[in-house]
From TrEMBL:
Stretches the record annotates as Disordered: 102-126, 142-177
Domain PNK FHA: 3-73
An annotated GO BP: DNA repair
GO cellular component: nucleus; site of double-strand break
Annotated organism of origin: Xenopus laevis
Role played: Plays a key role in the repair of DNA damage, functioning as part of both the non-homologous end-joining (NHEJ) and base excision repair (BER) pathways. Through its two catalytic activities, PNK ensures that DNA termini are compatible with extension and ligation by either removing 3'-phosphates from, or by phosphorylating 5'-hydroxyl groups on, the ribose sugar of the DNA backbone.
UniProt-recorded name of the protein: Bifunctional polynucleotide phosphatase/kinase
Family annotation (CDD domains): FHA_PNKP, HAD_PNP
Amino acid sequence: MKCFLRSVDGKHGPIALPEGKGVTIGRGPETLITDRKCSKTQVELVANLESRAVRVTQLGANPCSVGEALLKKGESILMKEDQILFMVNGLHPYTVLFKEDSSKPAGDAGKIDKKSPKTTITAPPSISSKKTIVDFFGASTSKGHKRRVQDDNTLAGSSNKKPKYQDTKAEAGQEWDDSEEEEIARKLAHLQETAAKANSNPSQTSSNDERGVVCSKDSWEEHGKLLLFNKKGIQASSKIAGFDIDGTIITTKSGRVFPLNADDWKILYPEVPRKLKELLANGYKVIFITNQMGISRGKLQPEVFKAKVEAILDHLGIPVQVFVATGMGIYRKPVTGMWDHLCEKANDGIEVKKEDCLYVGDAAGRPANWAPDRKKKDFSCSDRLFALNIGIKFFTPEEFFLGWKKAAFNFPVFDPRNVNPSGQLYEPPSASLVSPSPEVVVAVGFPGAGKSTFFKEHLVPKGYDYANRDTLGSWQKCVAACEDALKKGKRIVIDNTNPDLESRSRYIDCARKAGLPARCFLFTATIEEAKHNNRFREMTCKGHVSVNDMVINSYRSKFVEPSTSEGFSEILKIHFVPIFKDPKLQALYQQFSE
Ligand SMILES: Nc1ncnc2c1ncn2[C@@H]1O[C@H](COP(=O)(O)OP(=O)(O)OP(=O)(O)O)[C@@H](O)[C@H]1O
């Protein structure tokens, strides 16, 4: 038995790790690593042939990682054959390989060809048949799979390499090229075996991760504004790796921001297919999660988009579950409706473990010039906020696929998690919310500032009449209602946005004519908070017409700070203090929305 360290990138040949002897590896001619973050003595490796494991000890200042574990200087971990060692910052991947001595007859492992600088190994019987892998990927023909693998090689800039897998005639014992994909294929084949067992006995799972049954056919589902694609071969898991599609998995061929047509796409980075396959091999279910508002706006035909999704998956050659939010509402990222659907209804009842999940997206709130050749700021922060709302790890495509360092980003001004239920409701605190005698209360505040909620909570139950232009139909009807209430000696609130002097003067005049006071209740919710509230109302209140940003911006441009000089006897500032009777609604409110 011998042990070798193998470069997953295929940058150099295998490095022998003699039994029990420390081998120091790092930046240098042996590994061809030039990355200065990697020390020349980055890690020490000690092979133990009996336990088929290698002890990895971190020596350099910047940590390496083995599987999920990040090693600080001086820390050690045992590395098994199914794990990947990244020398530094998720870069320079290595695996270890234990092989029977080539001088002995090959058992269930292969042999090292000492003559060739490149390692060739004999495929273990369990994975030597191409069909095994083809079945896992759900591809229809072996030819199709072979072509797909070649495509991936081309993407990875290694078109001079031979195809990774032999054709269907490949038998156990035949030699095949050593490459990064071979290791991944080994793991995939192992997973497939486990999956096959799980299919016959769904309660049985692999050692660490919970897995479900393997999906046997492609299917599209529709759940209101959610489209869901189950690709043949997907398998439920407690570990989820989620990806946005546009700008993360693909970009446009044309170079335009928006695709010119359904064929205007290409894989964003050559590293994408391999990284996704690696995740699958490590027991993740890979899902794509995309906002496609164009569908509900009638600009994108659902069938056209469905065909595009299928073409992307065929090109990648991997089983992926795809979630598409077709309009506004709970399914639209950053709100977590699509994730909730996955957890509650689309993961075979396997509980998703958030700590084992990650999400990658390009809408990350990065400012202009976030990297030397990246001038444009991100169009949004919705992907980062989506991961934050769920509570899982987030990466940009550059961080995840290319190993770039974390980029700076701008956080939204309004953070719904910070609304304070015990905050001060109004100012000045010495004022009285309710008057014992007839009066007019005139609201001023953004659409969505919380005016109606406040009045219905605090004034209407105390006997105030209520006038609102949305329900009555016009400001003239509100004025009539106001006159009528005052004539009857009643108190009334006017629940309109009333941003300017003109709109307010109508009600102040009514009060003046009746010889009664008019007070102003100025709602202090900011524009960002008001937009959030409007989106929350859209998700939770079916009857309300949605308020678009134009209406909100128009309020802002018309707004004139109310003053007693207009004729108000008093001006109260009303702050947004959340009241939630249902914890589910509170949780939804406290999610970032966009
Ligand atoms: N104090 C509060 N606590 C929790 N949610 C609130 C509160 N105030 C308002 N909301 C929510 O914010 C959304 C907008 O509130 P509301 O309809 O009261 O605003 P508005 O100022 O009356 O809007 P418009 O001017 O468009 O009628 C609603 O979904 C409401 O449930």
